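User: I'm putting together notes for a lab meeting next week and I want to include a structural view of one of the chains we've been expressing. I don't have a solved structure, so I'd like a prediction I can at least talk through. The sequence is below, exactly as it appears in our construct file.
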Amino acid sequence: MSKILAAVAWPYANGPRHIGHVSGFGVPSDVFSRYQRMAGNDVLMVSGTDEHGTAIQVQADKEGLTPQQTADKYHRVIAEDLQGLGLAYDLYTRTTTRNHTAVVQELFRSLHANGYVVPKTQLGAISPSTGRTLADRYIEGTCPICGYDQARGDQCDACGNQLDPIDLINSHSRLDGEVPKFIETEHFFLDLPSLAESLGSWLGTRQDWRPNVMNFSLQLLKDLKPRPITRDLDWGIPIPLDGWRENHMKSIYVWFDAVIGYLSASVEWARRRGEPDAWRQWWQNPDARSYYFMGKDNITFHSVIWPGILLGANGQGDKGGIPSGMGVLDLPTEIVSSEFLTMSGSKFSTSRSKVIYVRDFLRDFGPDALRYFISVAGPENQDTDFTWDEFVRRTNSELANEWGNLVNRSVSMAFKNNGCIPTPGTLHEIDAAVLATSREAFTTVGSLLDKAKFKLAISEAMRVVSAANKYLSDCEPWKMKDDPARRDTVLHTVLQVVADANTMLTPFLPHASQKVFEALGGTGVWAAQPVMETVSEEGNEDYPILTGDYTAQIGTWQFSPIEVGRPLAKPEPLFTKLDDSLGQTGPEWATLS
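Assistant: Thanks for the context. Below is the predicted structure for the 593-residue chain, given as structure tokens.
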């Protein structure tokens, strides 16, 4: 049994999540974690709401709330959305906890002591009308490298290069269109150039990364610059150094504290279990594997900056040093980054009015239809355009007609003729062939899931579904009234393949898989779901978390013979077919402008 850390990107607490968000960090991480648990591995899946920084301050101003009230509001909204989608976190927490602050400050102090965090004066942007600091990502202009006219002040989404706001051509504030004013201010910088050699050596050991991630990461190494990790902002983690901690208008900035959240969430999880050192099994274990899930706009922070922070805090950077009080921490095994899910070729974006919110989608279509679409047609290796026409087509033809209809007609025939799972007789060649196809797929699909190749994995699982449908159509058991023994053999065979396919589809369709398990006469929890709990922390208000007990679920990644004689009931439809007209218009609440 291996220790598997699934580190899932932290969504901002400045609004509900849209389907573009969860196509990158949400569904892929859950499919992977569910498979690893079914395969017998010990998974720790952690994340939380990213609650510091300018984005939350800006949203708070819009709503007439304090930043803390805004974080409280949207942390709950986001947690509810992710629970509804069935994302099986061991802990989904938040960054405004005392625990998170303590872990972030410990790594900051270590990096500073080892010489990888250094003070430096820079030109910082402020709003001429308000005097408020403008965060880099709230300044927009033309990229000086590639010419993209919507580049942000910290990074260009088109070419991926790290930028400074003052480098942008025709820069302006995204908040009000003002041209920013630049003034001198002192901040701490992560000295990435002093980590370049050790980062390059580490990247050279990475095997089987997605090509887009590796190529992008190697390109970043060619031009590393010191990167500011503090800001003139009072909504953030205090700088834990004498002469700085007293200045409430300077804070550790959000991108630095957010990536450390994977570690702090692991520490919080262990403490809540009553085993405060349990996190070390995933962070200080040469046999453990860690996988980080995100959209491609986060590659920079996870393939270069976060490993750089870890190397520096470990004392393993180019300057050496001593490990932090956390000890030597393991670097990522793999960065599992997805491309963008788009609408009409444009990135999903609430700020640009291209958005389909998760909770609206779940209300009308349920979680598994969205999980299936993201898995089979999502942006795993390239940007993918979401269209209602394609969503309706796949839901109707693949989920309802192929999978749902197979389950319904096979269970219905066995219920009508036997009332239970029938006893098989002598197998014919056609029976043995479809069973072999099904059993062999466990290895194929499992290997693909272990390598985070979700699109190929679900396609292989659906190939088993297609084989079962063809088998049933070729054998025509509904015509075997005069040969009940042969009919029972065919029905037993197809029900076994249904059970096998259900196992292979469980990581993708956990809600439907529970229904199929019960339709086959099973009792108990086949695929466990996350639960929301309210927890407390000294010095803070109570807050909700997502967690769950996934150890007691029945579903395992293996062939399991179905039980002859197990009673069956008339099944309910697994998926509802959608009206074809929906493919042309989408629902009324969907926005595309």
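A couple of points you could mention at the meeting. The chain is about 40% helix and 15% strand. The CA atoms of residues 407 and 498 lie 7 Å apart.

User: Perfect, that's what I needed.
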